[in-house]
Amino acid sequence: MTKKSQLARLRRNLGDAVSTSDEDLARCSLDSARLPFRPDAVVRPQTDDQLQKLLVLANDMRVPLTPRGAGSATTGAVSPVKGGWVLDMTSWDAIHIDATAGMAHVGAGAVTKKINDAAEAKGWFYPPDPSSLKYCTIGGNIATNAGGLRGAKYGVTRDYIYALEGFLPTGEPVRWGAPLKKFASGFNLRDLWIGSEGMLGVVTRATLKLIPKPQARWTCLAAFQNETQALRAVKKLLAARVVPSILEFLDRQSVDCAQRRRGAPFFPKLKTCSLLLLELDGHPAAVRESKQIVQALFKERALGSRNTTDPEKAETLWEARRTCSQAMFQMGDTKLNEDIVVPIQSYEALLRYTLELKKETGLATPTFGHVADGNFHVHLMYDHGDPDQCTRAEVGLQKLMEKVVELGGAITGEHGIGLAKSPFMPLQHTKGEIAAMQRIKDALDPNGILNPGKMFDEFIMWRHPRDYAHTFPWDHR
Amino acid sequence: MTKKSQLARLRRNLGDAVSTSDEDLARCSLDSARLPFRPDAVVRPQTDDQLQKLLVLANDMRVPLTPRGAGSATTGAVSPVKGGWVLDMTSWDAIHIDATAGMAHVGAGAVTKKINDAAEAKGWFYPPDPSSLKYCTIGGNIATNAGGLRGAKYGVTRDYIYALEGFLPTGEPVRWGAPLKKFASGFNLRDLWIGSEGMLGVVTRATLKLIPKPQARWTCLAAFQNETQALRAVKKLLAARVVPSILEFLDRQSVDCAQRRRGAPFFPKLKTCSLLLLELDGHPAAVRESKQIVQALFKERALGSRNTTDPEKAETLWEARRTCSQAMFQMGDTKLNEDIVVPIQSYEALLRYTLELKKETGLATPTFGHVADGNFHVHLMYDHGDPDQCTRAEVGLQKLMEKVVELGGAITGEHGIGLAKSPFMPLQHTKGEIAAMQRIKDALDPNGILNPGKMFDEFIMWRHPRDYAHTFPWDHR
């Protein structure tokens, strides 16, 4: 069957839900990894019935179907690498807060920040806060098991999902879990779907767990001589069983970028430093108590610190963290952002390695991260027009991933695999583990139509053109 | 191949790890559901290598293999219903606390209470507390995603698992997740294993999440005129976003049982009542604040209440809750304990229904439960020697399950399906959902050797003899 007749059949069945406009095809050809593959159509089903029809058609004609939310994935997970159709779920954006039960009933296309705003308006709180939260959809968060800054205290997306509704790749409607606080019936396909990157089913709706909003917050920014000093303070803090809601670490390279952009150091007397940005939240008395431990520790170990309970002043303490990521583009027009995880015992070894890697590759390796849970973002900055820099970035990335696994770590803590990390799957998982995952994929998607070509097929992104011109809503260089 | 030659081959390969003693075969023939099926052998592998050999042999000769911990399952989940061999994991009981990382590395056979004791000795806390915690193993907790009293505040077993190590049914060694606080690589088979009742793999070791031990605790017992009054107070409390660490509800039938055993009412002036047992924990100031809300509410709505911060006095407040379960045997020598869940909007309707059911069946239906998460234990008491009572219990159970699903609830919140709840799977799940679960079972266990006959095969327990004589370590009638 030709693509043309496939499309004709799609249109006969789904009518207005089908678009082949240049704008839609371009927009849905890529995500933040900028690896474009043009689909043949973008489909926006409006009802469960239409969505089911779409899945049945895709199976019947063996057309690849790639589900998509906002497209803020960083791995190419929603690039339609095998062509076919893109399933755009952004219009499934209903949000209903059940203030009695402490639950949110949401559509897969609901934007994460809007969910949290709706919850907060009723005194409740949805903690997961990926950095794209103003744009990303809960469906995408579920697909990647998105994390964020509050992970170590509050957990990740998986920890806030009671129920998922949607369709199997073959079109059967299913619900996994239930809008209940406990559920132990049957196999747990709910959690299998979470983090499966749209390869095992399509989520239409979710029921989320909400918790009471923390009453008080205290923010502190502290400067350390170098990474080792900062990380040792972190170890002391965690061993004292302080549980910060946020504990962000910035290495000297990250701080330097932010300071250059700003034109002045964050701590006037310090030309360079490594930073910790810490937030405590909870009952005011509990915050006060932890604050004393933190302040005593920082007094002993930090070169300087500033703190506040005022939300506006806190925002000024956040400046380094908020600006460093975009400021890194001073050091190369292209960024690899590797969301690796290492155990607490290996924090210092990892940071030493980022400096070795800098020396070896001649590329900047600014690193920041959610240090209470060991989820560092190691960056490699390079110019994509410079073939030599590209080669060095490619080699550096491979070495970094090998080192991370050698340190007992994970190649991804919150972004997932998609296309970009597929070459590293064999570093993280044994052949037996990968084969088991593939058997599950085959069992649920026998025709292999749902988001094919991801995770298990090795994709070497360096061999593919990237679209550097495309502007995303979250680009703020 | 005869059973005898299968056994001979097993012995050649696993030697001393194999037992066919009468004692072992009897002990491993059943769990707390008392549905005995005698296995041909009990195997206690001492090493990973031996365990792998066992799985390879079982596949090669197509011998059913049923993994087992302490046997405190309440559903027949570890009864070797298809015969074959039982895999006894109780000797895999290592416990190592990593106080720096806040993790416990444990063997599948480690007893849950011993894990918590070891954690507490280092200032950490492992919250899941199934009522069998002095006896049950973490492997069994993982297999059923065991809950407990602290679920609504602290979550269930699934919420405290970082990594699982073990074997696929076909014998490949695997690790799902990692001893890390974040992990987003590949499909989430870790959580698929959790709650899969030993049907998708064998867990050998787990890495558990620990949290800081709460500093303060306040316990309160409050009496209400009836179930409706108690449940309305619960609704008010939860809508005020109070998050008790424990909130146990006891209906009048449960209270009456405990009072008859005790020979006196819990509140001298109240012949009968419904009870709420509430614990708050956390920072002392946070506890004080919530306490005020609780006390104001109970003052308005309860007929009486008593409270304490003293652990020894608290134990006296726990008397009704601790004794009611065994005291129910006054009303029948056999108990169905149904761990159902309903949404907060249906609490009162459920309790009205237990009274209807009592009238209809003529059997006692005492009900208590973890009311902050809607996980009620509805009991049906009957004499197993009385065929008429058995029939009424069977009919009553079916009706209860239908009602629970009609109310938007779950047929099990923490016990799982096993044999006893298998007839109700089609009430809870659609054919499409069950077929997807079965495809996953087939994908991971193509020869169907691991804990076969559970969950998906309808098992009518009323047609099978039960072993009422067997004494378990947790029997305290």
Report on this structure.
The structure is a homodimer of 477-residue chains. Chain A has 477 residues and is an alpha+beta fold. Chain A has helices at residues 3-14, 22-27, 48-61, 112-120, 138-144, 151-154, 189-193, 227-239, 252-262, 284-301, 311-317, 319-327, 347-361, 387-406, 425-428, 431-444; strands spanning 18-19, 41-43, 65-68, 85-88, 95-98, 103-107, 124-125, 161-167, 173-177, 202-209, 211-212, 216-224, 246-250, 274-282, 304-308, 334-341, 367-370, 375-382. Chain A has a seven-stranded antiparallel beta sheet with strand order 15-12-14-13-17-18-16, with helices on both faces. In chain A, helix 13 packs antiparallel against helix 14. The model of chain A has no long low-confidence stretch (mean pLDDT 97).
Lay out the secondary structure.
The structure is a homodimer of 477-residue chains.
Chain A: H1 3-14, E1 18-19, H2 22-27, E2 41-43, H3 48-61, E3 65-68, E4 85-88, E5 95-98, E6 103-107, H4 112-120, E7 124-125, H5 138-144, H6 151-154, E8 161-167, E9 173-177, H7 189-193, E10 202-209, E11 211-212, E12 216-224, H8 227-239, E13 246-250, H9 252-262, E14 274-282, H10 284-301, E15 304-308, H11 311-317, H12 319-327, E16 334-341, H13 347-361, E17 367-370, E18 375-382, H14 387-406, H15 425-428, H16 431-444
Parallel strand pairs in A: 2-4, 3-4
Antiparallel strand pairs in A: 1-2, 5-6, 6-10, 7-11, 8-9, 8-10, 12-14, 12-15, 13-14, 13-17, 16-18, 17-18
